Each structure stands twice: as C-alpha cells, then as structure tokens.
Amino acid sequence: MSRRWLFGDQLGPHFLDAPDQPVLMIESRAVFTRRAYHRQKAHLVLSAMRHRAAELGDQCTYVRADTYREALREVTDELTVCQPTSHAADDFVRGLDGVEVLEPRGYATSLADFATWADGRGRKRMLMEDFYRDSRRRLGVLMDGSEPAGGKWNFDADNREPPPKTPTLGVDEPWWPDEDEIDEQVRADLDAWESDGDVTFLGADGPRRFAVTHTEALHALGDFVEHRLPSFGAQEDAILSADPWMAHSLLSAVMNLGLLDPVEVAHRAEEAYRAGDAPIASTEGFVRQVIGWRDYVWHLYWQQPRNYRRRNELGATASLPKWFAELQHESVDAACLSHTLQDVAEHGWVHHIPRLMVLGNYAMQRGWRPSQVTDWFHRAFVDGYDWVMVPNVVGMSQYADGGVMATKPYAGGGAYIDRMSDYCGDCRYNPKVRVGEYACPFTAGYWAFLERNREALQGNQRIARAVHGLDRLKDLDELVVQERDRGSRAP
Ligand code: SF4
User: Fold this and answer.
1) Which residues line ligand 1 (CB under 6 A)?
2) Which of 42, 182, 320, 436 is 20 to 30 Å from 208 at the Cα level?
3) pTM of the entire structure?
C-alpha cells in the first residue's frame, strides 16, 4: 500500500484506504510566516494535525520543516495524495515526481457527478437550489421516494425569523472540547514563533473551541443534533449580540479540517427528523448548508477559470483599512460592526449573517478591493480556506464576479440589520437616518453604493427598483459627499 500524504485539512478516517495505511504529514512553518492567520486558527490546524499524528503513532511519518519541498527530501516512499483543496497546492503536488494525485475526498458530490449535472444545464444558470435538489435525489437525503421529505424542497421562508426579544436564544451552549498536552505544546510553539518575530497573528488566543479529532468531531455533531438542531432553523439568519453561537452547529471548521464526511453529517440530522426529534424546517436548513451550499462552493471553485479570484466587476479598488484588517473593534462606534469585529477577534468565527450582512456588506459598500477582502476572510476565520473564501467572498459577498454566483449584490442598509439583530438599540447611530450626525453608516453606505454603481446595476431586475429609488432621495447629493468624506475611517 502506498504512503498517503495527508494535508492539514484531510484528517478524517475517510482520507485513508485502510486503517493501517502508512501516512506522511508535513508541518510547514512557512505557511504561517507568509500570512497573518487568526491565532486560534493556527492553533486549531496545528493541534488537529498533531492529534492525528499521535493517533496514527508509528504508522505516520511527521516531518516538521520550513517548506513542503524541504520535507519531501526526507521521504523516499512512493506517495499518493487526495486532491488538495487549493489551486496552488494542487499545482504543487501535480508537479512532483513520485506523487500520485487521487480524486478529492470529503465532499458530498464527486467532480464527475458535478460535471454531469453542470453539463446537463445547457445554457441555464448553475443555480445552487437546482444543484442542491439534484444532490438530495442522488444521495437519497431527506427524500420520501421521489418526493422531498416534508413535501417541500425549501423551507427558507420558515427560517428567516428575527431574533427573540431575549438576550439569548435560550438553547444549551455548544459542547466545548477539553484541551490536552498537545494543545499545551501547540500554544507554547506559537508563543515562541511569535516572540522570535517570524510569525504574526490576528485576533486573540483563547480556549480551543472546535474538535480536532474524529472522535471529538462525532461528539460535537451528536451534541448539536440532540440539543441544538431542533432550534436551528427559524432564527438561523438572526443575530443576538450576547449569544454569538445561537443554535448554529459550529461544524464548518470541523468539516473543513476533513474530520467529518458531509453525507454522514446530513444522514445524522435526517435520523433526528425521522425520529421526530427535529422539525423539517431546521433539518432541511442544516442539510442545505452541509450538502448544498458547501459542495456548490467547492465545485464552483474548481469549475470557474483560474482568474476568478481576481474578478472585480464593480471596479472596487480601495484598500482594506487597518482598523478593519486588524480587528480594532474598540475604534468603531457602529455597534453591529464593532461587536462583529470583536467576536471575530475573540473566536475567529461568527455565523453566516454577520459575515455576509455586516462585514461583507460594509466592505462592498465602501468599495474595498475584493481580493483583499477574500484574503482577510481566509486568514481571520477558523473555517476559512482558499476554496471556501474565493467563491463566497468574490462571488457571493462582494458581487465581484458580475452575477455568476449571486443574482444580485448582498447589499443592505441599517433597516435589515435592525430587523435581524438587537444591535441598533445600543448604537450611537440611527438605522432610519441617512444624513447628519446620527446617520447610520450602513444605511448611508447602501445608498452611496447604489449611486456609485448605478450604471452597472440598473439592468439587474432584482435590484433595479432599489436603484430607481435613488431618484426619490432629496438628500442624495449631501449623502454622497458625507460618505465620500467618511471614506475608510472607522464609522
Ligand atoms: Fe449598525 Fe446602523 Fe444599527 Fe448602528 S444603527 S447598529 S451602525 S445598522
């Protein structure tokens, strides 16, 4: 049996052909010197790799080196590797002698099945909703024969409720893992690298909050399905400032380390539904994330041309300001943005709506360069990898691909944030005010964004009405000057 080279996001048992297969793992310090990752992300990845190596014992050759190339000089065996998850790593392994690259693993839909589905579209758009339905049928997830369980494919309309008027959702806290001596060593190593001046990190150190072994991952999944999945759906898009976790699974970081097979995750949620322990709307909303969105993004990453990451259809060229890039939340008055940056600093994680409608929305409104925004999301989030962030940020969040992924820009003003969160009550700004001292930077930013991109967006039927709404604003000129003056200052 060949030796299997495992990257740091290929750590589950399904990346091996047999439990006793010989393994190579390489811990490259250069990965952390090139970019300033969130401290807790660096900890998570190193901890997960070292835990896997400890589980495998003598079966695993674990090489610590500056670069992969340097490490590979010590390895004489023929190697196989499952297709890595970035274009750069894929190019690298395919350029090596003596390394066979296998099909990717850890995703619900194979490259061949995606290609079949995409080819069958003809000239039709590759809509996530259609891909997701095809995946449900093909994988037999949440199906009653040929019909979707619960009688509908999509329960989004049930899953968009605003938050309750209470400080928290009132569900059990997620299960948190216990750190061990491997975490202690990782922490000591990261401290040493930082004090040597080789490496800098974003955000704060903190207790490890995510699973790093398959056993821990199964525990996190079981705990979520039992205690939190039933409450997941209705308020999955809502935000509560005192409850960052709400009923979210927190499994994205774990799945993106390769510790869980997404089809097994979806089946586990379905079992709870079939047993009457979770409502269909919650179960469907979760399954949609796990085998729908996640795989759609993965395949889009490979299917789009290589220059997709540099697309910038709205011509956004401003630089990411330091206060945002370095998570300086204390310098921000806007309550929603300050809280969200603080949560990212403290945990390296916020759920999909603060990412999309607070962080991404603000970046797009201000015209920050999409490639810089993508790089920042990749570094700042514990679940951020190239394949996830390129389509999600360039396409979904920044609308820089001209509508390949999203049918309209995810731009919103303060009214959306006010409806879906409890931030605005404590804010010095007013979401209804566009101009003046109390003008909400999101509301004013929304109109300034539409005005700046009027020409590019007026042909898009899904946003044309909002663009025409600009003509009714008597204070538009004043607003545009106000927002130009605000520039990249912290709001
Ligand atoms: Fe955010 Fe505007 Fe609400 Fe303040 S008023 S929290 S800036 S949306």
Assistant:
1) 334-336, 414, 417-418, 423-424, 427, 429-431, 440-442
2) 320
3) 0.95
